[in-house]
Design a protein that fits this description.
34% helix
Length: 197
């Protein structure tokens, strides 16, 4: 199996981001975005997805966190799209239910080649510390558009905003881990009857 890795750099007037990804990793992460809560959430994806990710983001945080969060999603999406290559032999689909105390979320992903996000999440408050909960959606939208995946995110229970967000990112890591895995029964076949993804 060829190496499923990527190196991506994104430079705009608002952000400068570099990301290195190894899909077939061991859950090693070095994440620095300047936004502690986002670092914490991305660490969940690393650990539960068993991906190796090194990411450094510098953005216009003096304005607010929006550009940095969205562009981090874009950059990671580009990295996964690049590392997945032609997608031959992968499982393609993945799903996970993850609880954290009173919170429970479900994430379902399809490496379909078609970006689409369904996000059914309500938070009991607008901020988690200094982090605006609206930015979870912005991160995922950026990721979906550039990873070219279909993603369904549903929060099924929860009263603690931190717990809700954390179940989403843990479930995202778990669902992606399964979808990215090589299926030994697929050999080098493409998981599509259309012959293209």
């Amino acid at each position: 199996m060829s190496s499923r890795t990527a190196n991506v750099e994104r430079n705009t007037l608002e952000t400068q981001i570099t990301a290195q990804l190894n899909i077939d990793g061991t859950g090693q992460g070095k994440i620095e975005t300047g936004i502690p809560f986002l670092n914490h959430m991305l660490d969940q994806v690393v650990r539960h997805g068993q991906f190796d990710i090194t990411l450094n983001a510098q953005g216009d945080l003096e304005v607010d966190a929006h550009h940095t969060v969205e562009d981090t999603g874009i950059t990671l999406g580009q990295a996964f799209n690049q590392a997945m290559g032609d997608k031959k032999g992968v499982r393609r689909y993945g799903h996970a239910y993850v609880p954290l105390d009173e919170a429970l979320s479900r994430v379902v992903i399809d490496f379909s080649g078609r970006p689409g996000l369904e996000y059914l999440v309500e938070y009991p408050r607008a901020r988690i510390g200094d982090f605006d909960v609206d930015l979870v959606y912005e991160f995922l939208q950026g990721f979906v558009n550039h990873a070219q995946v279909t993603l369904h995110v549903d929060n099924l229970a929860g009263s603690n905003a931190h717990h809700i967000a954390e179940t989403i990112f843990k479930a995202l890591g778990r669902a992606m881990r399964f979808a990215c895995e090589i299926d030994p029964r697929m050999s080098d076949k493409l998981p599509s009857t259309k012959g293209a993804l």
